[in-house]
Structure formats: structure tokens, C-alpha cells
């Protein structure tokens, strides 16, 4: 095995271990990811990155998302992996659409506030309607976090 392949294997193992550590927090909310779940999420992430033509040097996006979303009232053990998969797709869609204007942390925070707030757990609304709102707010230089809470106008 050449050095690049060895490096990739080591990085993947490190990433898996870091995501497994997220279970210590998420289990408090009845949510855990198995090794198989994590490998599937990482495969999905790689496919998304290839589809959007991006390279990622920071491999903590999935960890950040698990920590941010595990306390959501709209995520349950029966939809956890599927929801995290869709949230990853939405994250990279937002990342691409905002052309790196926002940091990863800002996008994740925005997504969480919208998901728990005005989207009321709707992944469709988060991926379609809310992205339009975000882009309008960015173009108009508005505070992107205003109106995300449920019931805000």
C-alpha cells in the first residue's frame, strides 16, 4: 500500500473514532450511530463532495452536525441515520450555494435553528424554501438568524 493510501486509511479511522465519541453525547437523547451507520454516512459525504466538486480538509463536519442536531425534538432513533444523511446533503448544498460566504459553523447553526424553528423538522422545507430565504437575506445583507424561531414573522 502506498503512502497516500495509508494516509487515507488512517484519516478515515481517525474520523470514525471521533464520530463514535459523539455517541457519548447523543445517547443522552436516545441516539447512537453504529460503525456501519458511520461508514455509510462517510460514504455519502464522499459522494456528495465528488458530486459538487469539492475537497474537504477538515473532517469534523459530521461530528459538528451530530453534536448540534442530536438534541432536536424532530430526530428520533428510528429516523436518526436517514435524517443525518439528508442533513449532510443539505449542508453541502448550502455550502455550495453560499459560495463559502459563511463558515461551516455558521451554516450548521443556521440549519439547526431553522430545522428546529420555522421548518419544524421538515427536511424539504430546510433544503428548498429556507435556502431561498437564506440567499435573499445574504443578498440583502439582513441578519440571517432573524425569523428562524417557530412563530417568528
Automatic annotation (TrEMBL):
Protein name: Uncharacterized protein
Pfam families per the UniProt record, alphabetical: DUF6323
Organism: Coprobacillus cateniformis
Amino acid at each position: 500500500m502506498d503512502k497516500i493510501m495509508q494516509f487515507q486509511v488512517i484519516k478515515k479511522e481517525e474520523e470514525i473514532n471521533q464520530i463514535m465519541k459523539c455517541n457519548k453525547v447523543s445517547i443522552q437523547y436516545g441516539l447512537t450511530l453504529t460503525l456501519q451507520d458511520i461508514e455509510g454516512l462517510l460514504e455519502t459525504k464522499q459522494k456528495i463532495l465528488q458530486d459538487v466538486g469539492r475537497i474537504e480538509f477538515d473532517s469534523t463536519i459530521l461530528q459538528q452536525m451530530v453534536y448540534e442536531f442530536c438534541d432536536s425534538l424532530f430526530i428520533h432513533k428510528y429516523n436518526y441515520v436517514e435524517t443525518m444523511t439528508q442533513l449532510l446533503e443539505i449542508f453541502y448544498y448550502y455550502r455550495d450555494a453560499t459560495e463559502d460566504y459563511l463558515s461551516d459553523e455558521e451554516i450548521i447553526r443556521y440549519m439547526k435553528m431553522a430545522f428546529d424553528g420555522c421548518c419544524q423538522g421538515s427536511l424539504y422545507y430546510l433544503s428548498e424554501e429556507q435556502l431561498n430565504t437564506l440567499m435573499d437575506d445574504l443578498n440583502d445583507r439582513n441578519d440571517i438568524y432573524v425569523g428562524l424561531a417557530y412563530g417568528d414573522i
